[in-house]
Write a structure and sequence with these properties.
Blueprint: E1 2-6, H1 9-26, E2 31-34, H2 41-52, E3 61-64, E4 66-68, H3 85-92, E5 104-105, H4 114-127, E6 133-136, E7 158-161, H5 164-175, E8 188-191, H6 194-198, E9 202-207, H7 213-221, E10 239-245, E11 258-260
Helix pairs in contact: 1-2
């Protein structure tokens, strides 16, 4: 695992985008695992800029980590009202690059048969040849995707009940301002499992801000535990790159295998 510390969010985002772009240039039909949330927005904006300068996304295949269960992109609603991850990916990236619609895979939050959907999602990843590069953030309680504390570290794509902290975080960040009550917001999600994520050929994890500092240190330097599912990165056998800004890295106790750059 290589940990790279950048001065701030902007520099972290630029480096993450450069790594993704390098993967695509080296393998134009790369299978990329995409993440949602506030952390990768800067990275996606940088990828959009690169596309305008010639980076070609026409042959990549995209698999999203997760989606809320019970909602889907509703074009009749505003961005504030519709917090589906499908909308997020189109609004933050897919609408601005030349990816083919048929190459976009996002779990269907409106599925009537979630068990079959989860099974078929796993099969689709395998049929695509596996994920070449998986982009990851880290939740406030240390979760990857919606693998909440207590999730099995060999879990597969499934329906997961959201933890109280995730519900609190999502409510404050999204639903409160939209006038949606905490009871009305989604309480379940479809998520790739930790076992699924660990099968990616390469992992790129990004985190920023002082609020993530303690959980980042727990995940990277603490014991491997299903109570901090991102700690599974310590079990990963492939190439793992972790990019942090200085604030997110501020609680790390070791500089071993760490590159610091401004």
């Amino acid at each position: 695992m290589e940990i790279i510390i950048k001065k701030d969010y902007e520099q972290m985002s630029k480096l993450a985008a450069e790594i993704i772009a390098g993967q695509i240039r080296n393998k134009p039909n790369s299978v990329i695992g995409f993440a949602t949330g506030s952390t990768p927005v800067g990275t996606y904006r940088e990828l959009i800029r690169m596309h305008r300068e010639g980076l070609d996304f026409s042959n990549i295949i995209a698999f999203n980590l997760d989606e809320y269960f019970g909602i889907g992109m509703d074009l009749s609603k505003s961005y504030a009202e519709d917090q589906s991850y499908t909308r997020f990916m189109y609004e933050e990236l897919f609408n601005y690059i030349n990816i083919k619609d048929e190459n976009i895979h996002i779990p269907d939050g409106l599925t009537k048969n979630p068990d079959e959907l989860c099974k078929s999602y796993e099969e689709a990843i395998k049929e695509a040849g596996g994920i070449d590069l998986q982009i990851l953030g880290i939740g406030g309680d240390g979760h990857w995707a919606f693998n909440e504390p207590g999730s099995s570290l060999d879990s597969r794509t499934r329906i997961e009940r959201l933890s109280e902290q995730t519900l609190d975080d999502n409510y404050e960040a999204f639903y409160k301002n939209a006038g949606i009550s905490r009871e009305e917001m989604p309480h379940y999600a479809i998520t790739m499992g930790i076992g699924t994520i660990l099968e990616a050929k390469e992992i790129l994890m990004i985190a920023n801000g002082v609020k993530k500092a303690e959980i980042v240190a727990n995940a990277l330097e603490g014991p491997v535990s299903n109570l901090v599912t991102a700690s599974a990165i310590q079990l990963y056998q492939g190439k793992a790159t972790v990019i942090l800004d200085e604030e997110a890295a501020s609680r790390l106790s070791s500089v071993k295998n760490t590159t610091s750059a401004s």
